[in-house]
What does this fold into?
Amino acid sequence: MTKKKIGILGASGYTGADAVRLLARHPNADITALTANTHAGKTMSEVFPHFFMLDLPKLVEWEKVDWTRLDAVFCGLPHGTTQEIIAAVLKANPGIKILDMSADFRLRDKDSYAQWYGHEHRAFELQGEAVYGLTELYREQITAARLVACPGCYPTAVLLALVPLAKAKLIDVDDIIIDAKSGVTGAGRGLKQNTLFSEAGEGLSPYSIGSHRHSAEIEQEIGVAAGSAVTVNFTPHLIPMARGEFCTSYVKLNGATPDDLRAELERAYANEPFVYVTKKGVLPQTQNVRGSNYVQIGVVADRIKNRAIVLSTLDNLVKGSAGQAIQNMNLMFGLPETTGLEQIALFP
It folds into this structure.
């Protein structure tokens, strides 16, 4: 297959940079355009010195890209910025494939979007065609899509762990508590006091308690699986490591046992290349998936009767963002789904 010409919007952010890292060695991808308006004119290695060995195009303003020359674009821009830019890209090239790693097209309900993101959706005419890009749940729709809204990192970890259980009616979807932790890259690359080394190091900090925007995605997709509206208790935390994510979900059982939950997850993911359910007594760990597109899920019996604890971990920049976007791109172009994504976790 001829290499696909790829553009990356927001290449100076962490998700954009990880898309570059993975696509640079993808056998069917040719990185043709990189945008970063605040760093326009710089080389990628000036912004990210670890790319010193790569021959990459210079960073430019997004308005200066000839979108008609590209086959696909990955969008790593902040929410709110993305909608109008993607609309402009699609107007210039209606046949281009869009892999949006922002939150702008994930929520199907425009009132829900306005509630969680503080403003009306500015390109809602495109929302109807956007496919929620959790590969394992929407593979068939992604394959035929033009615009894929790749999930947030927290929803990816939580939904892979809980959606099969909700669909099988093994858990009470009205009683879900999610304790989630992410490395500091989840907060973006912008200068923020709470992510300075001396502020984030040697500590653990909760944030957006009861109001984190990823709650909406989690509730939307568990609700689809359960066939009813769902509200979850979701609390995220910032942990002092660069990348990685761990979600601990506390669930009430619907006449099932923890072994039933594990068996259902094993059945659901038996043929999935990147999702692994651990054996009984084996616990997922962030270091087992760091730098990779893999997910580990485990189930443990709670000491409280009729309850279980479901554990899930992934790399927030890979399966939680750029890796999943590439997994979806592979589907959209009819490539083997695992192409360019089979890196083993970096350990230690």
Residues 207 and 237 are 6 Å apart (CA to CA).
